[in-house]
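ok so dumb question maybe but i'm new to this and my supervisor (M.) told me to 'just get the structure for Luciferase' and walked off. so i did the thing. is this what she meant?? sequence i used:
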Amino acid sequence: MSIIKQNGFEVGIYTLADLGPNPHTGNTISAKQRMGEIIEAAKLADEMGLDVFGVGEHHRLDYVVSSPAVVLSAIAYATNRIKLTSATSVLSTLDPVRLYEDFATLDIISDGRAEILAGRGAFIESFPLFGYNTNDYNELFSEHLDLLLKLNEKKKVSWNGKFRSALRDAEISPRAVQKQLPIWLGVGGTPESAARAGRLGLGMALAILGGDPLRFKPLVDIYRQAGLEAGHTSEQLNVGVTGHTFLAQTTEKAKDEFYPYYSNYWNYVNRQRGMGTKMSRDDFEYAASPQTALFVGSPEQVVEKIVRQHELYGHTRFLAQVDIGGIPFERVKENIELLATEVKPMLEKALR
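this is what came out, is it supposed to look like this??
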């Protein structure tokens, strides 16, 4: 087992703010109610001692949040200590100047708690919405990341690229409270993305939604090798894991409760992607089995899964997505409370 770094192992939650029907009632709550519940979830996570709260970005009517920085700024005033991150910012179609300035503003409001998790996103609606071409998918991401990192380093920036106007000694204001905003890269499954995160010395966030955790270890190895070869220290190379999570006092109870919501979630997500598949209970049982990466079960079961992954990756952050598929907010709160009062203390003891 790898050694936990001085700042310890962080446990938090994130939401993509999906707006799906409750599978038991067929009712879908309003965007206003969903937004209020997201803020309440962040307040509870902060009060219960969790370390990080993340909010995703989408540009669709079946998701509530298109601007994580705005939502996180509201959360900043409702919380005291929890770190506030995007999950993710769709960097390919965001103006890096606007992105930096928005999160620097959040950093001021929150007194130094802002982070950016930059990624490509799961959908492509933002490309035509903001006047970009999907044929430039990779070039856009690379160019925008290059500029974002320069903005994070310097108050005045000169820069020239292909997709936006050049900057000539441009003043980038406001500046973050932190010397630099922590920036993580979301990595799905490509070695190239893992190597880039390592070369740049950025944190790498792995979205692990199922399957055997072992299949992600090569990405972690590539990330760390690239980072060390680029001259970064091992302390700079942080790995985070994100994943769907549902907790109950027993694993069987957790599976019985979660299956309708999890099946419902993938049903409407697959429809959004043009597919009509629905998850059977047998498929769910396999997805939730002890050797897989789906974090559903008793606190002990979930801790075992996180510890196994820590033995593989040496990661220092775990973020749980606890509100998918139309789960009622009262049950979301139970997830947060079990994560904070049972999973986090057991993890600290196991990884100490």
